[in-house]
């Protein structure tokens, strides 16, 4: 295949799917990963995509995601898909028992989840979310360990590059994570490198990994992968998820729970 033709088809895949991976492209076009990496470098130099670790994402999608993240406040994001987030949080709260040891990351969906856990007693919670910690402070029924880091007021979290062994003395039964983007091909992702690295450490620490996302996140993209979906045990979302995506997730061995907005 001519390079120009291959470039055109790569861009078609990026435009339609948001994210592509080097190894998948190499297999698709029957060429070497080195050749694909060169293709992605050339396309990035033309400004039509952004390279990621192991692949690339549409430059438009990535730029739009960043622009939106920079321009919309935490309070404004908290109002988006509010009914879905609250229903997802209520459903996820049924997975937690009194006395549980859990890990929550920061974000608007995680904050709603913390709110839904107010009636639970004797919880032990590890979090990097400022609003998450404040929600638990109102119930007085949880011991909260706030992780250190640089404060990101856009997401109301503390973020850092986790040092080796930072979680060696922490054991949690389950992690509950809100993420910026999720896809079958690229897994769960965040907009910044540090945020993705911190959430990756969360995944490594927990016995089970639950992802809380409203259905709009299945069409969102972020440049920094946390993990592939084979590290995720359960996804809690709303009925806006397409039947095809739900079936593909379940075929991959992931439990999918659908929150009912009417309850």
SSE layout and pairings?
Elements: H1 3-17, E1 19-21, H2 22-28, H3 33-45, E2 49-52, E3 55-58, H4 59-71, H5 74-79, H6 82-93, E4 101-104, H7 108-116, E5 123-127, H8 130-137, E6 142-146, E7 150-152, E8 157-159, E9 172-177, E10 181-183, E11 187-190, H9 193-205, E12 206-212, E13 224-227, E14 234-238, H10 243-251, E15 255-259
Helix pairs in contact: 2-3, 6-7, 7-8
How would you concisely characterize the structure shown here?
The protein is α/β, with parallel strands linked by helices. It has ten helices and 15 strands.
Can you describe this structure?
The protein is α/β, with parallel strands linked by helices and 263 residues long. The chain contains ten helices and 15 strands. The chain has helices spanning 3-17, 22-28, 33-45, 59-71, 74-79, 82-93, 108-116, 130-137, 193-205, 243-251, and strands at 19-21, 49-52, 55-58, 101-104, 123-127, 142-146, 150-152, 157-159, 172-177, 181-183, 187-190, 206-212, 224-227, 234-238, 255-259. Strands 6-5-4-9-12-14-15 form a seven-stranded parallel sheet, with helices on both faces. Helix 8 (130-137) links the parallel strand 5 (123-127) and strand 6. The longest helix is centred in the N-terminal third of the chain and has 15 residues, at 3-17. The radius of gyration is 19 Å and the shape is elongated. The model has no long low-confidence stretch (mean pLDDT 86).
């Amino acid at each position: 295949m001519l390079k120009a033709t291959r470039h055109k088809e790569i861009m078609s895949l990026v435009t339609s799917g948001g994210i592509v991976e080097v190894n998948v492209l190499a297999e698709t076009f029957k060429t070497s990963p080195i050749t694909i990496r060169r293709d992605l470098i050339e396309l990035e130099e033309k400004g039509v995509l952004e390279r990621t670790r192991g692949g690339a994402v549409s430059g438009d999608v990535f730029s739009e995601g960043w622009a939106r993240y920079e321009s919309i406040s935490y309070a404004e994001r908290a109002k988006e898909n509010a009914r879905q987030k609250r229903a997802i949080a209520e459903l996820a709260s049924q997975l937690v028992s009194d006395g549980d040891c859990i890990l929550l990351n920061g974000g608007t969906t995680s904050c709603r989840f913390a709110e839904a856990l107010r009636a639970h007693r004797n919880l032990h919670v590890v979090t990097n979310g400022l609003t998450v910690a404040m929600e638990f402070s109102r119930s007085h029924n949880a011991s909260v360990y706030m992780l250190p880091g640089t404060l990101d007021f856009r997401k109301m979290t503390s973020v850092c590059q986790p040092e080796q062994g930072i979680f060696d003395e922490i054991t949690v039964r389950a992690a509950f994570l809100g993420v910026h983007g999720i896809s079958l091909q690229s897994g769960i992702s965040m907009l910044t490198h540090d945020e993705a690295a911190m959430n990756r450490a969360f995944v490594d620490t927990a016995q089970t990994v639950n992802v809380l996302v409203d259905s709009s996140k299945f069409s969102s993209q972020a440049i920094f992968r946390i993990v592939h979906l084979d590290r995720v045990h359960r996804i809690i979302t709303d009925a806006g998820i397409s039947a095809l995506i739900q079936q593909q997730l379940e075929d991959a061995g992931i439990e999918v729970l659908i929150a009912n907005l009417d309850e």
